[in-house]
Each structure stands twice: as C-alpha cells, then as structure tokens.
Amino acid sequence: MRDFFCTINLDQEEVFRTQVVEKSLSPYFGEEFYFEIPRPFQWLSFYMYDKSVLQKDLRIGKVSIKKEDLCNYTGKENWFMLQPVDSNSEVQGKVHLELKLNELITDNGSVCQQLVVHIKECHGLPLINGQNCDPYATVSLVGPSRNDQKKTKVKKKTSNPQFNETFYFEVTRSSSYTKKSQFQVEEEDIEKLEVRVDLWNNGNLVQDVFLGEIKVPVKVLRNDSFQAWYLLQPRENGNKSSKTDDLGSLRLNICYTEDCVLPSEYYTSLRNLLLKSSDVQPISASAAYILSEVCRDKYDAVLPLVRLLLHHHKLVPFIAAVAELDLKDTQEANTVFRGNTLATRCVDEMMKIVGKHYLKVTLKPVIDEICESPKPCEIDPIKLREGDNVEINMENLRYYVDKVFREIVRSSISCPTLMCDVFYSLRHLAAKRFPNDPHVQYSAVSSFVFLRFFAVAVVSPHTFHLRPHHPDAQTSRTLTLISKAIQTLGSWGSLTKSKLSSFKETFMCEFFKTFQEEKFTESVKKFLDDVSSTESKEPSGLSEPVHLKEGEMYKRAQGRTRIGKKNFKKRWFCLTSRELTYHKQQDKEPIFTIPIKNILAVEKLDENSFNKKNMFQVLHGEKPLYIQANNCVEASEWIEALCRVTRCNQKRLSFYHPSAFLNGSWLCCKATIENTVGCARCTA
C-alpha cells in the first residue's frame, strides 16, 4: 500500500495540491478547486505522486488535456488513463523564428544561396525541478546528406530567453544548376531541406535536458523573409514503447468556461440599473431580479450581484425586498426560507463573504481538535465496526457537540454587523407575515445561521477555509454527525417539545434524549436574539475588520542584501478590510503592518527584476513591498483582493515602475532617482 497525492498544473506550474491519501492503491480525493486562470496556457495537467518521507516524491504518471479540448469534457465525469512522465512528455512553450533566403554571387560569378535563421526568443519554457531553466538552442539545417548544426549562448535562469542570434547556412545546388535571369528556388532541392531548432536545458555537470523542438521545411520560403511563433513539439521518436505499463487512471470532473470581459466603462449603465433594484416596486420588476431569472443557474447571477450590492452598501435593503416577496408565497410558518430562492442564495453568499473571519474565530480551534485528535463517534448500529463501543462513541460525540454548540452560542458578540442587520430584517418580516406564530421569528434566523452557515461549515471545513484539505473518511463521518446535531439544536428555539422527537434516524433520536433540557432551548433563543438585534451596534460594516485573505508567500527584505543575494524570506500574510500584515509564522504577532488607506497601488513586478516568477509589488508610503506568490493563480488572487479593497483610496498612484530599483537605477526606465514618477500607467 502506498501514499498518494495529486497536483493540478497549468502547463508545468503547480497551482493546487490535494491532501495525501495514505495506504491505498485506489485513493479517493473528493476535493474541489475553483480558480480563474490569469495567463495563457497550453495544457491543464494532473500529476499523480507517490509520497515519500525520506526521498523525493515519485511522479507516477499524469493526465494532460489541451486547452482546446477542455470544452469536450466540461461538466462531465471522465476517467483518464495516466501517462508516463519524461522529458519528452513535458515539452511546452514556443519559439519566435525568422527565416530568409538570400541570393549571393561568388567571386567566380556563380550564384549560391544563403539561408539566414534568426532565432529571436522563446516563451513559456518548462520549469526544471521547480526552477527556471538555463536554456540554449541548437539550430540545424538538415537534408538527406547534410546536418549542419550551430548553437546559441546559454541564458541563465529564465523561461522566456531572449536569444536574438542569427545563423547563416549555405544552400548548395545540384551540379546541373545554372544561373537564371531571375532567382528562383528549385523545388527539387528545397523539398529535401528543413530547419530544425532544438531547445535544451544546460545541465552543467549533469546531462542536458531536452525541452522541445520545431521543424520548418525550407520550401515555405520564396524570395521573402518568413517569421512566426512556433509551438515546441516533443520528439517524433521520443521514448515511445510498443507497450506502456498500466499506470492506473484518474477520475475528473472539469468545468471550464471562457468569458469575454469588456472594460469597466461599458458596464456603467448596467451597474447603475442594478444598484437601483431595491427601490423598484414590485421588486420582481427590478433589474437584479430579472437578471437572476434569465440566468440558467441562479448562482451565476447571485455571486456578482451580492458583491456589487455589498460594495455599494445596497445589499441589506435588496435582501429585505426579495425576502418579503418570498414570504408572500410561503403558506406555512415552518417552511420559511427553506427553498433555494434568490433571497436565500443572496443571504448564503453574504454569509460566506462577510462571515469568513467570524467562522474562523468561532469554529477553527474546535474543528482543528476534531481533525487532528479524532475520537470514534459512530453511533449508527449499521455502521459500527467490530470492537466499537457505542456507549463510548456516544460520549465522544456528545463531547464534540457540546463544545461546538458552546462556541457558537457564545459567539454572538463576534457576529459581523452586516449579518446582524440582515437577520434583523428577516426576523421582523417573518413575524409580520405570521403574527400568530411566536416561533417563526426564531426559525427565520436559525434557518440561515445554523442550517446554512455553522452546520455547513462543520461538515465542509475545507470549503470555508477552516482546514487546508478535506478530512479523512472517519473524521468526515464524525463531522457529519456533529453537523446534524447542530442543525437540530439550532432549530430548538423555534420548535415545541412535542416536535423534538421527530427524527429520521432512530439512533439520533436516542442520542438527543440526553439533550432535551430547557437550558439548550434558552441558549439558542438568546443567541438568535443577539445576532438579530441592531441595538448598541455601530453602522453596518464599520464595527470590525473583515478577514479577506491569508497565506504563505515570500517577501524581499526592503533595501537589504545577504552576501550579494537578494534577501527573500517566507512570511505569513494576512489581509483584512483595514490592513495588510505579514508575520513570521501563522498566529504570530505581525512583523509589519500597512494600513489599507496607505496603499497607493498594487501591480505586477517584471520577472527580470529578481529573476523570479509570480511577483507583485505593494506601493505605500515607504519603499515598495515586493512579494512572490507560490504560483500564478495565487498571485492573481492576491492582486485582485488588494486592488478591490484599495480601489477607493484617495491618493492612489496613476503611474508606477514595472521593475525594481537596483544598483542605482530603475530597470524599466533607467532613471537614477529612486522617488521619480513611474514610467508606466497603473492598471487598476
């Protein structure tokens, strides 16, 4: 039995990694990854690894899908055979080539032809052992009886080398060739010649690694020069055996979409129309409501709507308006806000956006305890394993449920003000719709905060960023049981004692007999009262910082070097609605803090600044903060998050320097004054 994990790669750049599934030859990962692709790519690849403790992880095989073919697999589950991984299968990138045939007259008056090959640059060459390669190219003129080869200089540590080298080859003619009044390339000669360009990584003390090749028949030339970008190809005879070992297969469900996004000014009229939606009567005639109706999937409209309305402080009145419409169609009090309507989905998305930090401070410690020190909690007689003690399991489950429940009902003071404002509106709308039911005001709130927020976060901690990966099967089952218990306890504030015995599973009914105490009901009611009250609260959105993003990246020490090398250190970054901080480690005190209001611009940093990919810069009052993300997706997400939270800053820059200030000058514009105005217009 072996330990496996899988990576998701754009070309060869790893952007996500699954958890390790231990001791299995048929690992089930069950993980979902959603991301926007920030750069051009050729292949979406999945690499299967055998985890090793003492040695380098072993690549078992891979699945690679061309960008053009992704649409054939979108929205469907498919099994893909794993293919072997070698240098020939890892080819990627492209080369810019210019070819020209010149006619030359020799000293004796005869005519000869000269082939001019100008290799300009390459783009997107593969990484070697996770690092930029040291590429060089060989340029050959190949025919039936010739193989003339020339070589470029080696370029250090780059995936986008600029060669700009020109090579000359004499094109020989048959002995029967005679000079003609007008130069014309003879088809019989040209058919047999081709230009071949091979890219290699210079291995220094080890063997050079093949990076790809292109072949261009000389017959494409006439009397004009010809230049184009060519995609690198694997060798035609490269390592193909007649029989490939069965490496296994990988089941994937891929959803790939491409959208054409116009400049923001094209959407001004639509944005203004959507922002007026909460004032339209009836609400079903508003632009936001109509947009949700015409979308094939409501979720496609809900997420951007919530973000837009939230940013412009229009979300609470809009949710109140669509919730009131929902309640008009609700006939029984015990079914309020139970469907997937525009109102319920808007509240769901609002809680996910605004409640991230709330979930973290409330549930993360206890979720970590459950996942890192799991206790057996199975109480279903059908699923009990041999040797399990149901009484001990029930005690373990009761301990976890008590702890999670206690953390939740004590957390009302941490509930974001915006969530409280929404719950306040929902509570009073429900009470107005069903004035004779004293419990509906509680069920209107508990159906969201317990059923759609806390209970969902408990059962799927990875989705809410409470854990880095999905838990194993046993822990997942424990979390499912805890989630069921939290859903039930959360509904107690709106149920009578006679309704508490109606459970689908008999074993859950037995478990809850120990919970039927007045203090649990009172605790739930008090919590629901607190989170649906606007008394003694500051205006919405001003009371506490919203936790936006965090993660481990590298930062460059500002102005310092270490033995001639740029000083890059791994740090834990945290972004809230108030500040950007970095820490030596997660949960440690911040080393450096930049208030959001002080950020002047956030822009990408040219790779040539420090010869590192995926870098961006945060410009503030002091020297720029240079940060390197782990991959292009992470870099794009951080830039987007920082730009979004600083978009309204009054002193934002209009111009910036795309490269760094090194050795007394800016690499981009060669200016020697460090605080001079930027040479490029800001992109955001």
TrEMBL record:
Pfam families the UniProt entry points to: BTK (PF00779), C2 (PF00168), PH (PF00169), RasGAP (PF00616)
This protein's record includes keyword Acetylation: no
A GO BP annotation: negative regulation of Ras protein signal transduction
Residue ranges of the TM segments: none
Residue span, C2 domain: 1-80, 91-231
Entry keyword set: GTPase activation, Metal-binding, Repeat, Zinc, Zinc-finger
The PH domain, residue ranges: 546-647
GO molecular function: GTPase activator activity; phospholipid binding; zinc ion binding
Gene3D superfamilies xref list: C2 domain, GTPase Activation - p120gap, domain 1, Pleckstrin-homology domain (PH domain)/Phosphotyrosine-binding domain (PTB)
The keyword Cytoplasm is assigned to this record: no
InterPro entries xrefs: C2_dom, C2_domain_sf, PH-like_dom_sf, PH_domain, Ras_GTPase, RASA2_PH, RasGAP_CS, RasGAP_dom
Domain annotation Ras-GAP: ranges: 297-491
Protein name: RAS p21 protein activator 2
Organism: Columba livia (Rock dove)
